[in-house]
Amino acid sequence: MARPNVRILSRYILRQHLPPLGFALAALTCAMLVNQVAKQFGNFVGKGLAGSVVLEVFLLSIPFIVAMTLPMAVLVAVLYAFSHLAADNEITAMKASGISVGRLLAPVMGGAALIALIALVWNDQVLPRSNHRLRTLLVDIQRKKPTFQLKEQVINEVVAGQFFLRAARIDPVSNRLSDVTIYDLEDPERRRIITADSGRMAYTPGGTDLYLTLLDGEVHEVKRTEPDRFNRTFYGVNRIRVAGIGNTLERTERDTYRGDREMTLCAMQDVVAQARRDMERARADARVAVVTDLRRLLRLAPPPSTPPPAPGVAVDSTPLPKTLYCRAASGLKRLLSPTEARAAQRPSPTVVAGGSATAHTQRVRAARQRAAIYEVEIQKKLAISAACVIFALLGVPLAIRFPRGGVGLVIGTSLAVFSIYYVGLIGGEELGDRLIVSPFLAMWTPNLLFTLAGGALLWMVRREASTAQGGDWDDLRQALFGWAPKLKLRIVDFGLRIIGKGRRSHSQSAIRNSQSAMDPPDDL
Question: What is residue 304's DSSP assignment?
């Protein structure tokens, strides 16, 4: 059982982290959400969307933003809390009481591990569902055309390439039109021009169709089959229905397609396992194709082959292996999901098709590419979750070593770490998807680098006896760039040595030349 003072110290350290953690998470999420609104808001203007739809788009963007800002908030909270503890000499007092830096780090790492577990569940369960709903909603919005509006004394394109309308005056209150001219090009076999002294327009309740009631006008019509014949019709009342001008938002009810960012870890593991099976099957088929081609060139009898499977029959129906986490998640899903939903999520069977050796090679590469894309996404979810612990390991010794950096240290260090980390993630994802590096190294290299940096800083802090000395921006600049003047002096010294050696060799060669000039010729 832990001593009471130790438990009090752990609770005290964790309480120091809670306010900056909540503030940093809220501030960073709001900042990135505002940036998202600024980038996407222009795409929704003029679409005639309801405010609730636009709000739903930005609400569905929050889970992705939280997944990115949660590790950031952990680093900001650790830097802020420990820099204040060190600046107030509380770290020095704890060390004087016999409490090591490792003991101070223990509750922080425990809390960071808990946040990492929450981040993993968030990235695996909440984020894929929100990404799926956001993608389907954005696709539905893209299918919606801008709101239908008529302008005065302008030829308005009511239906693209088919129906055009011009009106001298349009009353937006009563929807009355005056001096109307309509160009009807819907029928390719005839052309019609409809004029009217006045009229009125109305919409269907759904806003998809336009009804025009025209008064006192004419219809001029010419047919392509009879170009020498012109029809002119007078009317008192003419009613016209124009379909498909409204642009209501049609929501997709069921979209079974899911990309890699819309799937859970277990679903992606199933795709990776199936891709690896397809890859092995394609390699086996390639070997058979090579042997068959060689025997054909040597004019030998073809090897006996098994009959191909019937269309729609799975080649390998062995259940895919699942990890403990996936088995637990699957059991919980069976309790909460209906049977129909589970049946609809089963992967479709794979059918083997024949082909040449080149086709089999392409199948192998396609399977490798598919497996790599999903493996990179799996490792990215795990790496981002683990970054909460790694940032805590990096922030504690950094804040203790530079206690007088203040808010500037927190903001500057956080921005530098975030920039390096997420640039590394983006570059690693690109390299992993292109099969240049393994998915693990592609996603975990930034984590490994920051782990080494945090371990080195922790080792340096544990060697120091006090935290009251130094710790301002000059010390941080000296720690980061103190090697530059020394390197410059070494480069200058090396250059001077090279120049000195060159001058000595030049003088020695000049002396030898002068001596050779003074020597008598051999023939004398």
Answer: P
- The region that residue 477 occupies, defined by phi over 0 for left and psi between -120 and 50 for alpha, beta otherwise, is alpha
Identify any residues that bridge with 202 across adjacent strands, giving them in sequence order. 211
pLDDT tens by residue, 33-68: 998 888 877 767 656 677 788 888 889 999 999 999
Q: Looking at this protein, which amino acid is placed at residue 3? A: R
Cα-based torsion angle of the residue sequence 8, 453, 73, 61 in order, rounded to the nearest 10 degrees: -150
Q: What is the helix (H) or strand (E) element at residue 169, kind and residue range?
A: strand 163-171
CA-based max dimension of the chain: 135
355: left (phi over 0), alpha (psi -120 to 50) or beta: left
Characterize the bridge pairing of strands 163-171 and 176-184.
Answer: antiparallel
Rounded-to-integer distance, Cα 28 and Cα 69, Å = 6
Whether residue 265 is predicted with pLDDT greater than 50 in this model: the reply is yes
User: Which residues, 6 or more positions from 132, have their beta carbon under 8 angstroms from its beta carbon?
Assistant: 255, 258, 262
Instruction: Please state the pTM of the whole predicted model.
Output: 0.68
Question: Roughly what angle, to the nearest 10 degrees, separates helices 406-433 and 51-87?
Answer: 120
Q: What is the 3-state secondary structure (H, E, C) of 99-117?
A: CCHHHHHHHHHHHHHHHHH
Q: Which residue has the tokens 């981002």?
A: 384
- Position 226, amino acid: E
Q: How many CB atoms lie within 10 A of CB 78?
A: 29
CA nearest 375: which of 276, 446, 284, 279? 276
**197-235 pLDDT, tens digit each:** 999 988 776 667 788 999 999 999 998 888 888 899 999
DSSP letters spanning 30-41 = HHHHHHHHHHHH
b/e 487-510 (16+ beta carbons within 10 angstroms → b): eeeeeeeeeeeeeeeeeeeeeeee
